[in-house]
């Protein structure tokens, strides 16, 4: 795997409420869940969503990045994050 340049997500981390449905949009990157996340950003790559026990879901890669920079909390509701299996 070549090194992937990841855009800074810090600006997005000050997530704003856009009023759109959080069911379809990953609030970490503000991209639709049905699309790939900015970390993948290549068509054909399976970027599966990560489902949390709180009922929110995000791109798996966004969530991994979020957790590496933040606490283990849901970026949406701030509940303690754990993956729904
Ligand atoms: Zn995302
Ligand atoms: Zn991804
Ligand atoms: Zn949540």
Shape category:
globular
Beta percentage is 5-15%
The H/E string reads HEEEEH
Attached small molecules: zinc ion
User: Could you give the distance between the termini?
Assistant: 27 Å
Largest sheet, strands/sense/barrel:
2 strands, antiparallel
Query: How many beta-strand elements?
Result: 4
- Based on secondary structure, the structural category is alpha+beta
The low-pLDDT segments are 11-22
The assigned CATH architecture is: 2-Layer Sandwich
| CATH topology term | Herpes Virus-1
| Average of the residue pLDDT scores | 79
Family: Belongs to the RING-box family.
Keywords: Cell cycle, Cell division, Metal-binding, Mitosis, Ubl conjugation pathway, Zinc, Zinc-finger
Protein name: Anaphase-promoting complex subunit 11
GO molecular function, one term: cullin family protein binding
Descriptive report:
With 85 residues, the protein is of the alpha+beta class. It has a single domain (21-85), classed as Zinc/RING finger domain, C3HC4 (zinc finger) (Herpes Virus-1), CATH 3.30.40.10. 16% of the residues lie in helices and 12% in strands. It has helices at residues 10-13, 60-69, and strands at residues 25-26, 31-32, 49-51, 57-59. Strand 1 (25-26) and strand 2 (31-32) form a beta hairpin. The model is unreliable at 11-22 (pLDDT under 50). It binds zinc ion (3 copies). One zinc ion binds next to loops. Residues 37-78 form the RING-type domain. InterPro entries: RING-box_E3_Ubiquitin_Ligase, RING-H2_APC11, Znf_RING, Znf_RING/FYVE/PHD.
